């Protein structure tokens, strides 16, 4: 299993790491049993993501996908951020090993979950914008 | 990426020692004869093969004729299990006893045998990672064909009561195999005194090269070949012998066995030092028995930290170590060994295996201890799981 230079760069120097106090939307996905949890904090102003931070418990790919995903949505309007796919995250990282594809799905889900939280806080039903949030963790932790 | 300067993954593989390399080189250059050939070049290779066989026999306390060279430890395990199972099935015995935390070369072979109608009892290994002799005795039935228990565990280094299990098997007339890949050169082994009928070992764990192993088989048993073909290894294992690798293994095992006590004295001191320092970190667990473990092995779990991230951070500091974390192996489930000793998944994901060799130095250990606590702090600082743990919102540990 080999990580690309890009993955290693984002792992070694993660961008936008940390928390946002008084964030407008916070999303947490994954679970400890599967070995990865991602938490995203968004600051939203006029429908635009003005700041984003993340915290991740997980493997190198989990940290790298969350790091690059924050870069890809910072400064973007919500509707554009919602269009970010796990495939785009993989491409931006110059590929991921097959066993790590689920990390990119998790990054996509973390953003969606944070945006859904923002809508909910605004008293708006997030489902029409965000869709139904799927639990990615259906194959990795058969106990 | 930084170059690996400190190698602490000797349970994965070891470097070839200078003396082993020196012994191998002539057989990679001018001594290329086939030991089955009658002329001088062939005879020279045959003599080298016999010498290596005697060296292995001496190291294990068996006869030369009981040593079979194979391509690796996994082949030795597969051969021992499959051929013994078939031999005993012919006598109506189709029950095998093993443990829950064997190497996959054993576990996956047993699973294949189960599909063919064999029944396998997997003994528990408890929190300390050690099989109970009493459990082995109780599990033996009239139709038990084989007991296979590893000598030392590859992940947590716990040493099993092999002589005692051998005694029970001998008394009950059951064949006893042990996967000693991690134990050879680290523990004093004598197959006759310890009542071991079959034993697997691998060259690359003891500073020989990869691609060579041994199966010792008590001469009482005539195992059917696993690799069929020519008459090599007295008709038991076909395939032209890998003379350079076998010569290297002979030298390696001789040296490893001679140095056991000296090496262990040094590594025990390093082990104590590492345990003392690492256990100062908050919420860390030492996996496996504190004392009944290989001197070179340490296995810790750090709550709130994921193992692969830990390894990659160590790698950035030029330190190579290993993890029981699923992520490193490409499977997403955590180590079956750590689950077998009762760790919750959440904690098993955060494990680190440090395995030392005779070449490990105190400076290297000091460097590890200098960087490890900071890496754990850094990863915990970015871990949502660590937040949950601090708030008491997560799993329980026994």
Features:
heterodimer; A: alpha+beta; Sufe protein. Chain: A; three-stranded antiparallel β-sheet; B: 398 residues; alpha/beta; seven-stranded mixed β-sheet; 42% helix
Helices, strands, pairings?
The complex is a heterodimer of chains A (143) and B (398).
Chain A: H1 5-12, E1 25-31, E2 36-45, E3 48-57, H2 60-73, H3 78-81, H4 86-92, H5 101-121, H6 127-130
Antiparallel strand pairs in A: 1-2, 2-3
Helix pairs in contact in A: 1-2, 2-5, 4-5
Chain B: E1 6-7, H1 18-28, H2 40-60, E2 67-70, H3 73-89, E3 95-99, H4 104-115, E4 119-123, H5 133-139, E5 144-148, H6 162-172, E6 175-179, E7 198-202, E8 213-217, H7 232-235, H8 243-258, H9 260-278, E9 284-286, E10 297-302, H10 307-316, E11 319-320, H11 326-329, H12 336-340, H13 345-348, E12 351-355, H14 362-381, H15 384-390
Parallel strand pairs in B: 1-11, 3-4, 3-5, 5-6, 6-7
Antiparallel strand pairs in B: 2-8, 7-8, 9-10, 10-12
Give a verbal description of the structure.
The complex is a heterodimer of chains A (143) and B (398). A three-stranded antiparallel β-sheet of chain A has the order 1-2-3. Chain A is α+β, with helices and mostly antiparallel strands. Chain A has one domain: Sufe protein. Chain: A, CATH 3.90.1010. Chain A is globular and about 45 Å long. Chain A has six helices and three strands; from the N terminus they run H-E-E-E-H-H-H-H-H. In chain B, the strands form three sheets. In chain B, strands 2-8-7-6-5-3-4 form a seven-stranded mixed β-sheet, sandwiched between helices. Chain B has a three-stranded antiparallel β-sheet with strand order 9-10-12. Chain B has a two-stranded parallel sheet with strand order 1-11. The radius of gyration of chain B is 22 Å and the shape is globular. Chain B is built from 15 helices and twelve strands. Chain B is 42% helix and 13% strand. Chain B has 398 residues and is an alpha/beta fold. The interface between A and B is medium-sized, with 35 and 31 residues.
């Amino acid at each position: 299993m080999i990580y690309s230079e890009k993955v290693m760069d984002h792992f070694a120097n993660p961008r936008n790491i940390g928390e946002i106090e008084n964030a407008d939307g916070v999303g947490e996905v994954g679970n400890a049993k599967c070995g990865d949890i991602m938490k995203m904090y968004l600051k939203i102003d006029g429908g635009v993501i003005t700041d984003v931070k993340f915290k991740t418990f997980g493997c190198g790919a989990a940290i790298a996908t969350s790091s690059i995903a924050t870069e890809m949505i910072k400064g973007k309007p919500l509707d554009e951020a919602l269009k970010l796919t796990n495939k785009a995250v993989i491409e931006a990282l110059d590929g991921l090993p097959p066993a790590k594809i689920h990390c990119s799905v998790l990054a996509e889900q973390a953003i969606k979950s944070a945006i859904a939280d923002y809508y909910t806080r605004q008293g708006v039903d997030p489902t029409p914008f965000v869709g139904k949030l799927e639990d990615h963790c259906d194959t990795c932790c058969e106990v | 990426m930084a170059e690996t300067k400190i190698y602490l993954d000797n349970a994965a593989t070891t470097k070839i020692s200078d003396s082993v390399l020196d012994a191998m080189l002539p057989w990679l250059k001018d001594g290329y004869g086939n030991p089955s050939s009658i002329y001088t070049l062939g005879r020279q290779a045959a003599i080298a093969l016999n010498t290596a066989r005697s060296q292995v026999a001496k190291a294990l306390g068996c006869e030369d004729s009981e040593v079979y060279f194979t391509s690796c430890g996994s082949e030795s395990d597969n051969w021992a299990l499959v051929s013994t199972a078939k031999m005993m099935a012919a006598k109506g015995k189709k029950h095998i006893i093993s443990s829950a935390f064997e190497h996959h070369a054993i576990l996956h072979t047993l699973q294949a045998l189960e599909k063919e109608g064999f029944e396998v009892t997997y003994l528990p290994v408890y929190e300390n990672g050690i099989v109970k002799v009493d459990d082995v005795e109780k599990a033996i039935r009239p139709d038990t064909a084989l007991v296979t228990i590893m000598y030392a565990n590859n992940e947590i280094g716990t040493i099993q009561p092999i002589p005692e299990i051998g005694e029970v098997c001998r008394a009950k007339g059951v064949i006893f195999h042990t996967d000693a890949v991690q134990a050879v050169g680290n523990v004093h082994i004598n197959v006759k005194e310890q009542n071991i009928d079959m034993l697997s070992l691998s060259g690359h764990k003891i500073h020989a090269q990869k691609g060579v192993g041994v199966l010792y088989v008590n001469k009482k048993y005539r195992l059917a070949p696993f690799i069929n073909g020519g008459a090599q290894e007295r008709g038991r294992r076909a395939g032209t012998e890998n003379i350079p690798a076998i010569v290297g293994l002979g030298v390696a095992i001789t040296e490893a066995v001679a140095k056991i006590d000296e090496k262990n004295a040094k590594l025990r001191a390093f082990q104590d030092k590492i345990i003392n320092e690492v256990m100062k970190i908050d919420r860390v667990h030492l996996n496996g028995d504190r004392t009944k473990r290989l001197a070179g092995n340490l296995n810790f779990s750090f709550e709130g930290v994921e193992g692969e991230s830990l390894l990659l951070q160590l790698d950035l500091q030029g330190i190579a170590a290993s993890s029981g974390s699923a992520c490193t192996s490409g499977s997403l489930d955590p180590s079956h060994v750590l689950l077998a000793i009762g760790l919750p998944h959440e904690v098993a994901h955060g494990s680190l295996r440090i395995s030392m060799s005779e070449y490990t130095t105190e400076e290297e250990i000091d460097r590890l201890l200098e960087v490890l606590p900071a890496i754990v702090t850094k990863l915990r600082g970015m871990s949502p799981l660590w937040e949950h743990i601090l708030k008491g919102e997560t799993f329980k540990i026994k």
